[in-house]
Design goal:
The chain is of the alpha/beta class. It has a single domain, classed as Rossmann fold (3-Layer(aba) Sandwich). The protein has a six-stranded mixed β-sheet with strand order 1-5-4-6-9-10, sandwiched between helices. Strands 2-3 form a two-stranded antiparallel sheet. Strands 7-8 form a two-stranded antiparallel ribbon. The radius of gyration is 18 Å and the shape is globular.
Length: 174
């Protein structure tokens, strides 16, 4: 399933049943609602790490995620420039870019999109530097199962609040 260099995975759970519909004369039934996906670009060259991220998002009850996986920064930049991305998960050690420069390149191309650093091979010093240069958060691989979805939601909400607080002339396009 993960052999392709570019994968799009949609993870969602919607199960809404309500007995309170009875009070409205509608009887017991299922409510159908549109599924809103949080669109995430995962820029990660390690297949096992990509699988771990997708598995962590699949286990969450914190909404629905559409994950598009690319193995290189250049592919991720192309995807981010096409708009329609809510957040980016970034490994700083990629075949075509290494270190803090990886974040700088993405940050310049993805203004206004929250970027979270995946920290498998990144030192704490680099992680702090990345956050100081604009990354929203730094995530450790051992903690993804319980922190990834929350960190993504928080980063997206912070971006929305920051965007709403800016004067209209200063806002970057969403």
């Amino acid at each position: 399933m993960y052999d392709n260099a570019h994968i799009k995975l949609i993870v969602h759970r919607v199960e809404i049943e309500s007995a309170s519909l009875n009070g409205w004369g509608l009887g017991r039934g299922t409510i159908t609602a549109p599924i809103v996906h949080t669109r995430v670009v995962l820029i990660e060259n390690n297949q096992r790490a990509a699988q771990t991220v997708c598995a962590a998002l699949a286990k969450t009850d914190d909404g629905s995620f559409e994950v598009e996986w690319t193995r290189q920064l250049s592919e991720g930049l192309t995807r981010v420039c096409n708009k329609g991305v809510d957040a980016v998960l970034l490994n700083l050690t990629l075949p075509d870019s290494q270190g803090i420069e990886t974040l700088d390149k993405l940050f310049n191309a993805a203004r206004g999109i929250p970027i979270l650093i995946l920290g498998e091979n990144v030192s704490k010093g680099i992680a702090k530097l990345a956050v100081g240069r604009g990354a929203q958060d730094y995530l450790l691989p051992d903690h993804l199962e319980y922190s990834l979805a929350r960190a993504l939601r928080n980063a997206i909400e912070r971006r929305a609040v920051d965007h709403a607080c800016q004067p209209p002339a200063a806002r970057l396009p969403s």
